[in-house]
Design goal:
The chain is of the alpha+beta class. It has 5 helices and 10 strands; from the N terminus they run H-H-H-H-H-E-E-E-E-E-E-E-E-E-E. The strands form 2 sheets. It has a 6-stranded antiparallel sheet, with no helix packed on it. Strands 4-9-6-7 form a 4-stranded antiparallel sheet. Strand 6 and strand 7 form a beta hairpin. Helix 2 packs across helix 3. The radius of gyration is 16 Å and the shape is globular. The chain starts with a helix and ends with a strand. 28% of the residues are buried.
Length: 192
Amino acid sequence: MRSTGEVESEGVEARLAGRLAELRVARGWSLDELARRTGISRSTLSRLERAEISPTATLLNRLCAAYERTMSRLLAEVESEPPQLVGAAQQAVWHDESSGFTRRSVSPPHPGLRGEVVEGVLRPGADISYDGPAVPGLEQHIWVLDGVLEVTAGGVHRVSAGDCLRFRLWGRSRFRNPGPDPVRYALVVVLP
């Protein structure tokens, strides 16, 4: 028997697949055009839009850049309108098993607000690279709660528990857990 969380996760993934297809069609792009813009193969895009596979964090970031949305904003578009008080049980959790990344939307995007709070967990050895921000100049504040996080953004930064790294993101970035323990961090994202 599947848990409620597993059923909800499948629902979010199906809605995400549908939303990705809607965004492509709204722009009048073929799968070939989207493949050209993102560097993701046509067959992978087709399987993503049919919910046959789940996107990795890297693929989702490329799609977000093409659609000029933050990852949180895209994920919020497939969830119901969040209440003012977001209880722990209501916070959407997304897992990218292949990269060892778990993302909890603690304070999801909300109309009229520019900021959001995300909890990230990377297993030891996890290493995720992003081609660039979905929105250039995106402000980020990374507060490491447990473990050590290596962040590459305008330089390489080793961020230990209790430390906070803040910057505006214009280009590529990389999040790596040098180990040996999982790293848990809060990410505050503010639209420019």
